[in-house]
Amino acid sequence: MPRSQRNDNFIDKTFTILADILLQILPTTKREREASTYHRDGMSAQSEGEYAEALRSYYKAMRLEVDSYDRSYIPHNIGPTHTSNGKHARALEYYFQAPERNSSPPQAFNNMAATCHHRGEQAIHQGNLEISEAWFDQAAEYWKQAVAPSPGNYIEAQNRLKITGRSSLFN
């Protein structure tokens, strides 16, 4: 039984049932259904803190998924898993893949910005102020891209830009 079908949470169970029904109704191949199952299993494992299992499921989904749009969401989910493991550089590699596959995923840009901001904070703690500024500037650029499609979202990003004096990048 796929992991996503073992959820005890009512909302997760409902979503899983609806997703399974849609996969049966919509004209999809066995490979696409498998990719979707692995992707959902990865999200389920990730939400339970089972990061190694989540990564295994995401990588299987990446190998199976053929639709470029659907495939663009998998690296977006792999990124936070690496972030949770403290592997920020690896997380950025996957965040960068999402916009390459889908031109405007604001959540990927937001995650890229948050990771760059974190790297900037790390540089400050290491005494590298020049490097930290470069990371913060990069974070501001990504936050700008995250906020642009829907200015009402990512209020925290907008506030961070104002607090750090980078709101001019936002105009």
TrEMBL record:
It is found in: Plastid, Chloroplast thylakoid membrane. HAMAP family: Ycf3. Belongs to the Ycf3 family. Keywords: Chloroplast, Membrane, Photosynthesis, Plastid, Repeat, Thylakoid, TPR repeat. InterPro entries: PSI_Ycf3_assembly, TPR-like_helical_dom_sf, TPR_rpt. It is a peripheral membrane protein. Seems to be required for the assembly of the photosystem I complex. It comes from Athyrium anisopterum. It comes from the Eukaryota. Gene3D superfamilies: Tetratricopeptide repeat domain (1.25.40.10). The gene is ycf3. This is Photosystem I assembly protein Ycf3.
